[in-house]
Amino acid sequence: MNAIALAAIGIFIFILGYRFYSKFVAEKIFRLDPNYVTPAHRFKDGVDFVPTNKFVLWGHHFTSVAGAAPILGPAIAVYWGWLPAVLWVVLGTVFAAGVHDFGTLVLSVRNKGQSVGTLAHRLIGQRGKVLFLFIILILVLMVNAVFAWVIANLFISYPASVIPVFIQIPLAIWIGHAVYKKNKKMLVPSLIALAVMYITAVVASQVSFLQIDLVQYMGGEDGAGLFGLGSISTAFFIWIIILMVYVYIASTLPVWKLLQPRDFINSHQLIVGLGILYLGLLFTNPDITAPITNPDADISWFPLLFITIACGAISGFHGLVSSGTSSKQLDKETDARFVGYLGAVGEGVLALISIIAVITLFPDKETFFATYSSFQASNGAGLGAFIEGATNLAQGLLIPAEVASTIVSIIVVSFAATTLDTSVRLMRYIISELGVEYKIPSLEKKHVATTIAVGASAALVLLPEGPNGFGSGGYLLWPLFGTANQLLAGISLLLISIWLRKLGRNYMVTIIPMIFLMFMTLWAMFQQVFLQWAWYADQPSTLLFVFGAIIFVFTLWIILTAIQALLKKADPDFSGDE
C-alpha cells in the first residue's frame, strides 16, 4: 500500500472525529456552558491558575501530552505489522483518547480545577481517592524515569541537539516576561525563538565544537569515565543530574515564566516537524515495505498492542495533564473541546507519522524482519528506527541528513522534556495532596514535595538493575509504563461515567471505551507482569514485579469500589459542580 494514501485516510478520519463526534459529546453529553466561570478566573493567582488564550493553552497541553511515548510506542508496535497499529491509533484517538482527554478536562473545570485523583473522593469515596492517588504517584514516577532515560540517551546519541534544546530555556523565559509583564503577543516572539533554535541546530550539526559530546570528553566509548562507571555511563549520569536540576527549577516556577512559553514554542516546533514529515512524505512518496501483519511474531499482539501503544491512542497521563495543569488555565469552558479533544487528535497525527516513518524505512520485508526479529528486539530498535525513518522523509525536502537527524532528535527531546517537567509538577501536587490527607504539613510545602519528586525520579532512573546495569531503571519500567498508563485512563473514564450517571446523562460514550480498555489492560498486565516474570523471563525484574503487583491490586480495589458507585441511580440533587 502507498504511504500517502494511508496517511490521508487516517487524517480524514481524525477530521471527521473532531468535526462531528467531539461536537456531539460537547453539546449533548458534557453540555458546555460559555458563561461558566472557570477555575482560572475563580482562583486566579498568577502561578498555577492563569486564564489563558485557547491557542496558547492548546500548545501547552499538546506538547505536555505529546512526549516521546506517541513516537516510541507505535515504533515498537509495528513489530506486529502496520495494520493493527494504525487501526488502534486512529480509532483509539477518535473514540477513546479524545473523549478521555476532553472529559477529564471538563470534570476538573467543574470541580475547582482539582485533579482526577482528588475527584475520586467525591465520586467513589475516601478509600478510592487514596488508592487512586497512589496509582497516579507511581505512574508519574515512572514517567519521570522513562522520559529522563530517553532524553539522556538521545543527548548521548545526538550531541548536536544539546545546545538547540537548552537555548530554548532563556528564549522561553524572555517570551514569558514579554507577554505577561510587557503585554506583548506570544506568536511572533515564539516564532523568532523557533527560528533561533533551528538555525542553531543547522550550525551545530555541521560544526563539531558546538556538539556537547560527553562521551568523547570522557575519552570515547572505551574511556574510563568517573567512579569506575565507564565513559558512556558517566555521560548518562551527568545528563540525568542536569535534567533533574532543570526539572526542579522548571516545576516550581510560575507556569507563565517557563512552562507556557516553552510549550508554545514546542507547539510550533511540533507543527513544523509534522509539516516537514508529511511534506517529505508527499515528495518522497515511499512505499510501505513492512508487512501488514506479522504471522510469525514470537508473542501475540492481542492484547499487548493496547498497552504498547498508549500515548497516541489513549493515555491516562493525558488526564493528569488535563485535570492537573490545563484545567487551571482554561479561559472559557467551551475551549475544552478545542484544547482536550483536538490535543488528542494532534497526538494521533504524530503517532500516525511515527508508524509511517518506520514502515517506509526498510528496503524490503526481509530487512524489516532482520531488525524487528522479536518483540524484545523491537523495544530496542523502535526509537532509532523512527529517527532514521523521519530523517529519510525530511531528506525529501532536500534537508541534509545530519541536519534532519538533529532536528528530529530535538523535536523528540523537546517534547520529552516538556512532559518531564509537567510530570514532576504533577507529582509535586500529588505529594502535597497526600500530605493534606495524612496531615503531614511538611509535604504540603512546595519545595519539600518537589525535592521528594525529583529525588525519587533520579534514584529510579539510575537504578542499576537488570542486564543493562547502571541507569537501566527507566528502560526496565517501559513495559509497566504502558499498563499503568492505560489503567489510569480506564479509571478516569470510569470516574467520568459515574459523574455523568449522577447527572442523569448518557454515559455510553465513556463506559464502552472504559470496559474495552480495562479488559485489555488487566489481561495484558497479568500476562506480562505476573506470568512472564514468574515463568518466561530469562532475567526477571523484581522492580517490575513489585510495582506491577501494587498497581494491579490497587486497580482491582478501585474498580470494585467504583462499580458500586456506578450502579447507584441518578441523584437529582447532584449538580456536577463544586
Describe it.
With 578 residues, the chain is mainly α. Helices cover 72% and strands 0% of the residues. It is globular, with a radius of gyration of 22 Å. The model has no long low-confidence stretch (mean pLDDT 87). The chain crosses the membrane at residues 6-21, 62-82, 88-109, 130-152, 158-179, 191-212, 224-249, 270-288, 300-321, 341-362, 403-426, 447-464, 476-500, 507-526, 546-567. Belongs to the peptide transporter carbon starvation (CstA) (TC 2.A.114) family.
What's a quick, concise take on this entry?
Its main location: membrane. The protein has 578 residues and is an all-alpha fold.
Topology:
Blueprint: H1 3-30, H2 39-42, H3 54-65, H4 69-77, H5 82-109, H6 116-124, H7 126-157, H8 162-180, H9 187-206, H10 214-217, H11 231-252, H12 259-284, H13 301-308, H14 316-324, H15 335-359, H16 365-371, H17 375-394, H18 401-437, H19 446-461, H20 473-476, H21 478-503, H22 508-536, H23 542-566
Helix pairs in contact: 1-5, 1-15, 3-12, 3-15, 4-15, 4-17, 5-14, 5-15, 5-21, 5-22, 6-7, 6-21, 7-11, 7-18, 7-19, 7-21, 7-23, 8-9, 8-12, 9-12, 9-18, 11-18, 11-19, 12-17, 12-18, 13-22, 14-21, 15-17, 17-18, 18-19, 21-22, 21-23, 22-23
